[in-house]
Design goal:
It is a single chain. Helices cover 76% and strands 0% of the residues. The chain is mainly alpha-helical. It has one domain. Helix 3 packs across helix 14, helix 4 packs antiparallel against helix 14 and helix 8 packs across helix 20. It is globular.
């Protein structure tokens, strides 16, 4: 490792330690690297600009953010919740099941765990803690855990980022996330049912069956969005980026004209908030692109692949080791940083071991989403704390059982690649 790269790492870790946003820390560390290496100081800006503007797939990120924000602002999430309450609210632990099912449905529209938590969180948590039916911290914990499904079932912003650094097919990644997303939901439902029986959560008042058709018709246009997205991508009608544009336009049509729940002022706030979120994500991606150039210049991925090859590690052992590392890093770093900076170090080694990059990508993204609810970083926990006022300490105490359920689902995906790869293969993806 050269002196310039060592200095770059020290600058990065030092700036991150004092609380500087990771995107800015990466950019400043990269400037330090080119300075110590005697390279042109304009290089970081060049890498950032070319990387952002030469990748058409990155346009999907702001478009999916806009779609999710319109969904949240246009009362669409409320209608979906009423549909889910009528569907599964009658069972023991019913509102916990509603929480998971609503997040599975909403996952097909937003692509962001934070958007799902912010959009569905306050409404479903208020429903669950009304009249003391569920402890507030439990309601927040299952909401946080269920929101991790959002970026696994397509569309998925983290999978777009992984496709950028790995070259894996974004369509295959989207297809590969569908069954794992349902598996995560199933594990959370089982854990919720166990908790409901053990802690004596009562049965909720069932919605009369005669009202189900009306609620279904009311929610049906929103339920069509995942179908439109998947048909567009896998039917060869649109690229993933074009599908993101269709999703944003469809969400706008629904909220503004069909449901009539989006005023001009609200739309302005939605676009303003989406622009700020997109700029924030763009900075992280730009910083990661510069850092990835430095890592490639130092030939670190090839060195890592050589070490792994020399150790004669089996593919399963490699996957378990890498995912254990990512699980720990998820407690300290945000998902974007792990996917854009850490994961590329292991991609050459995965190729050497003949691990399918779609399988590798999906399990890593699932792992990173678990990191969103593990302290001390746990950004989704902070979001729910901010919108509900439920103490963070209480949420952390309740969330661990759901983290365990998600880790079990992750291990199943690692051990059995077919869970991820069966649907992509069915749709024509060749490993």
């Amino acid at each position: 490792m050269s002196f310039a790269f060592t200095a770059c790492l020290l600058i990065l870790l030092g700036l991150a330690a004092i609380g500087m946003p990771i995107a800015l820390a990466m950019i400043l560390a990269a400037i330090g690297y080119v300075g110590f290496a005697g390279q042109n100081l304009s290089l970081p800006a060049e890498q950032m600009t070319l990387g952002l503007y030469d990748n058409f797939i990155l346009l999907a990120v702001p478009l999916f953010i806009v779609a999710a924000n319109i969904m949240n602002a246009g009362s669409i999430s409320d209608r979906l919740l009423k549909f889910c309450v009528a569907l599964v609210g009658r069972f023991r632990g019913g509102l916990g099941l509603v929480n998971v099912v609503a997040n599975i449905i909403f996952a097909g529209m937003s692509g962001s765990a934070v958007a799902d938590a912010a959009g569905l969180g306050k409404v479903i948590i208020d429903m669950m803690r009304k009249d003391g039916r569920y402890p507030p911290a439990y309601a927040a914990a299952i909401t946080a855990a269920a929101s991790t499904i959002g970026p696994i079932i397509p569309p998925s912003i983290p999978m777009v980022m992984y496709s950028l650094v790995s070259g894996a097919s974004i369509g295959a990644l989207f297809a590969g996330g569908i069954i794992p997303g349902f598996l995560m939901g199933l594990m959370l439902m089982i854990m919720n049912y166990w908790a409901a029986r053990r802690r004596g959560f009562g049965l909720d008042e069932p919605v009369p069956v005669r009202e189900l058709p009306k609620l279904t018709v009311n929610a049906f246009p929103a339920l069509l969005m995942p179908v439109i997205l998947l048909y567009g991508i896998y039917g060869g009608v649109t690229t993933p980026t074009e599908a993101a544009a269709v999703a944003a336009f469809y969400a706008l049509l629904l909220a503004a004209f069909f449901y009539r729940a989006l005023s001009a002022r609200t739309l302005y706030e939605v676009l303003r908030g989406s622009a700020m979120s997109s700029a924030s994500v763009g900075l992280v991606i730009g910083g990661a692109l510069i850092f990835n150039y430095i890592v490639a210049s130092e030939n670190i991925p090839t060195k890592v692949a050589g070490v792994i090859d020399a150790m004669h590690v089996t593919p399963l052992a490699f996957l378990l080791i890498v995912n254990a590392m990512v699980l720990v890093l998820g407690c300290l770093l945000d998902a974007s940083t792990i996917i854009l900076v850490i994961v590329p170090l292991f991609i050459p080694a995965a190729k050497v071991l003949h691990i399918d990059l779609v399988h590798f990508g999906v399990v890593v993204v699932v792992n990173c989403m678990i990191g969103l609810i593990t302290p001390p970083y746990g950004i989704v926990l902070f979001v729910l704390n901010g919108i509900t006022g439920i103490p963070l300490r209480d949420m952390i105490r309740e969330v661990w059982v759901f983290v365990l359920a998600l880790v079990v689902a992750l291990v199943i995906m690692i051990v059995e690649p077919g869970i991820v790869l069966w649907l992509p293969h069915l749709l024509g993806y060749a490993s």
